[in-house]
Amino acid sequence: MPVLSHVGRVALLAVFAVPATLVPLQAVVAAAPAKVQKVAIDNFAFAPQVIVVAPGTTVIWTNADEDPHTVTATDKSFHSAAMDTNESYSFTFARPGEYAYFCSLHPHMTGKVIVKG
Question: Is the pTM higher than 0.90?
């Protein structure tokens, strides 16, 4: 049996040792920060009224008004139920494009999500 020098043993250990810091790929992917953009519904308006996001971003609308509101895409690609005070609705935008929306209970309330990427 060959005798390894100290340097040889260290090199052999370096080749076969598994670092304690190895993390499964699934954990790395899950730990990636989610892309989220928030829109407030306040005083019968969406704020901000127009937002620009990257594909894969989730937009969360939260109703701060006393009256119920909805978020309804003009192309019918998304539609929330009526949200009471402090309720939220979210939608994830997968593809680039412009998505105009309004409140179906108060059609003068309008907004737009622009997805670029």
Answer: no
